[in-house]
Automatic annotation (TrEMBL):
Name the record gives this protein: Isocitrate lyase/phosphoenolpyruvate mutase family protein
InterPro entries registered for this protein in UniProt: ICL/PEPM, Pyrv/PenolPyrv_kinase-like_dom, Pyrv_kinase-like_dom_sf
SUPFAM superfamilies referenced in this protein's UniProt entry, alphabetically: Phosphoenolpyruvate/pyruvate domain
UniProt source species: Streptomyces paromomycinus (Streptomyces rimosus subsp. paromomycinus)
Molecular function terms, GO-annotated: catalytic activity
Length: 282
């Protein structure tokens, strides 16, 4: 448990620029991102679950155990703060989620991401009752008061045309979660500037959104989010999915007997060597 790392992590949500949080899925990806100079690292539950051959967001005991194991590895390898995606608490009640939070804090984590989507939810499926989710948030803060609790609200996640969805429930849930002790609010699925601006104005805490590249590759996206008042921008599962895509693309290039040594699709420019990757584990 690092009080200084916790202090730094909290402060990063109140800096002049939004915290750009890349999400790793194992020790190597986290260490490489930290070495690239990112101020803090997050984990992605999709990446951790998929690496085990498990689906994301199902409250799997195997994914829970792997998440704790990864947190412990990161605690001994990273000098920067890191935060852990714990889905909705892996199906546990307040006591179990509090115990999980304590384990993660003891491992060295500075924060957790706790979502209110029910296991297996897709689209317009129901969310955990706000009062019930507030109990989980309180349990985290009681058992690990130094952790930054990023309360994720799934009202706009995996739905059609998120920009047209009303914000009443989102703002009401944010109020409930902050009253329970949450330090920040995360609303994945929102990309429209007007919606984000309304959330920033209505949430008296740091707002976190997902980075969405868009058709132009996302040029200027971070600057625009900063102008809107967003305080944290996460990559979510983007890096993990990109790595899968790069691996398949390169394998297809090998099969076609034409690996590009440059920076194009399937290219090798900038790829770390064997020794560099070995050093990530030292």
């Amino acid at each position: 448990m690092s009080t200084e790392r916790n202090r730094v992590f909290h402060a990063l949500h109140h800096a002049d620029e939004p915290l750009l949080l890349p999400n790793a899925w194992d020790a190597a990806s986290a260490t490489a991102l930290a070495a690239a100079g990112f101020a803090a690292i997050g984990t992605t539950s999709l990446g951790v679950a998929a690496a085990l051959g498990e689906p994301d967001g199902q409250g799997s005991a195997r994914v829970r155990d792997a998440t704790v194991a990864l947190a412990r590895r990161l605690g001994s390898r990273l000098t920067c703060p890191y935060t852990v995606d714990i889905e909705g608490g892996f199906g546990g009640g307040p006591q179990e989620v509090g115990t999980l939070a304590r384990e993660l804090a003891e491992a060295g984590a500075s924060g957790v991401n706790l979502e209110d989507g029910l296991p297996g939810r897709t689209g317009d499926g129901p969310l955990v009752a706000a009062a019930r989710q507030a109990e989980l948030i309180r349990a985290v803060k009681e058992c690990a008061p130094g952790l930054y609790v990023n309360a994720r609200i799934d009202t706009h996640w995996l739905v059609d045309d998120a920009a047209t969805r009303p914000l009443d429930e989102t703002l009401a849930r944010a109020e409930t979660y902050l009253a329970a002790g949450a330090d920040g609010i995360f609303v994945p699925g929102v990309a429209d500037g007007r919606v984000i601006g309304t959330l920033v104005a209505g949430v008296p805490a740091p707002l976190n959104v997902l980075y969405t590249p868009g058709p132009d590759g996302g040029r200027g996206r971070l600057a625009r989010l900063a102008e809107l008042g967003v305080r944290r921008v996460s990559t979510g599962s983007l890096l993990f999915r990109s790595a899968l895509h790069a691996a398949v693309t390169l394998a297809e290039s090998v099969r076609a007997d034409g690996v590009d040594g440059g920076g194009g699709p399937g290219g090798l420019a900038g790829m770390p060597g064997y020794g560099e990757v070995q050093r990530l584990a030292e």
